[in-house]
Amino acid sequence: MTGGVTDRERWARAALTRVVEPGDEHGGRWLRELGAVELLRRLTAAPYEAEALAGASQRRVEGLRLRAARAQPERDLAAVAAVGGRFVVPGDPEWPGQLDDLGDGRPVGLWVRGRPDLRRWALRSVAVVGARACTPYGAHMAATLASGLAERGWVVVSGAAFGVDGAAHRGALAAEGATVAVLANGVDVAYPRGHAELIGRIAEQGLVIGELPPGAHPTPSRFILRNRVIAALTRGTVVVEAEYRSGSLVTARAAQRLGRFTMGVPGPATSGLSAGVHELLRGEAELVTDAAEVAELVGDIGDLAPARRGPVLPRDLLDPAGARVLEALPPRGRAATASTVARDAGTTVDEALGRLYELHALGFVERHGEGWQLTAGAIRRPNARRGGA
């Protein structure tokens, strides 16, 4: 027994990961009502106990019974142990409680590779997901966001796919930070094969997790259902590039339903790969451009992003009276008398003269006989086009 979980319970749940598909709410209801041990017993008993699985057709039950007959939990538990892994189930100290928000759709259990404690890591985690066929901009933003989050002590969670997912994992690893890969297959199967080395690095430095038992291969539906785990496990989901039809949007919408933060990184308005993100941003998602803005949303009180503003010019520091006098001077080198400046500034001649001498000392104006004019430095603006005011 580990924690409050008996060996029989763990054994039965390991078997059921070969019987019940991820996200199957009917299976989750049976599991909740009967318990793992009893559900497995009824699926393997002969003859079939018809009252056991209310709401399931005979055809479906027979399919589940065939799967249950082939399940070999001892072999699967030994296989995950052989790659340095374990099987974590509800009731274990390591079980992330936020997955319970999925209700009957929560995982039967999680197969885990890696040394860190999954529950602790999940408490301070953010998902970074997006397009597989991402642009260089998307890969750069994913890696930069992930490395910035990792440097701030956040765990970066993604799906180990090509494109944005891979860039996010690499960004976190490059910062020597924490990252979790949630797979749609067995944790001992490197998929996609082109990411075998990356998944191996994640298993060494972070965590690789999945609902499916060792040796299991992905299917299109398993990819989609995997996304609900990413959404539930983390405090928020950031989408970096996604078309209108994208699995990343499935993750984001699952996060919204679960009450998690949903964020999007904007891209060019003309890019189809950003169209889905922009649609999210038109709804309830928050626009983010860097790790500081993500941390401000999902973090604790006081974890604020720096204020964003343009450059502060010397003339911005003038008091209101001095600014009015400066603005009353004509542009482009033309001079004006103190009385003209006083009239246009709405003040007295004496007040205008006093301010003009202050502005002269600060290098904003120069005197030419009885006239005053702006210096070249006061006329120029940062990055102004040639010939502009």
SSE layout and pairing:
Elements: H1 7-16, H2 25-34, H3 36-44, H4 58-70, H5 73-82, E1 85-88, E2 110-113, H6 118-123, E3 125-130, H7 136-151, E4 155-158, H8 164-174, E5 179-183, H9 196-205, E6 207-210, H10 220-233, E7 236-240, H11 247-257, E8 261-265, H12 275-282, E9 286-287, H13 291-298, H14 320-328, E10 336-337, H15 338-345, H16 349-361, E11 365-368, E12 371-374, H17 376-379
Parallel strand pairs: 3-4, 3-7, 4-5, 5-6, 7-8, 8-9
Antiparallel strand pairs: 1-2, 2-6, 10-12, 11-12
Helix pairs in contact: 1-3, 1-5, 2-3, 7-8, 7-13, 8-9, 10-11, 14-15, 14-16, 15-16
The computed structural class is alpha/beta
The quaternary state of the protein chains shown equals single chain
Radius of gyration: 31 Å
Question: Any guess at the CATH architecture of the largest domain?
Answer: 3-Layer(aba) Sandwich
* Main sheet characteristics: 9 strands, mixed
Q: Please give the share of residues in helix.
A: 40-55%
The total count of helices amounts to 17
Number of domain units: 3
Strand order of the largest sheet: 1-2-6-5-4-3-7-8-9
| Approximate strand percentage | 5-15%
Distance between the termini: 78 Å
Count of extended strands: 12
- Basic shape: elongated
- Look at the structure and give the CATH class of the largest domain: Alpha Beta
Query: Within the CATH hierarchy, at the fold level, what is the topology of the largest domain?
Result: Rossmann fold
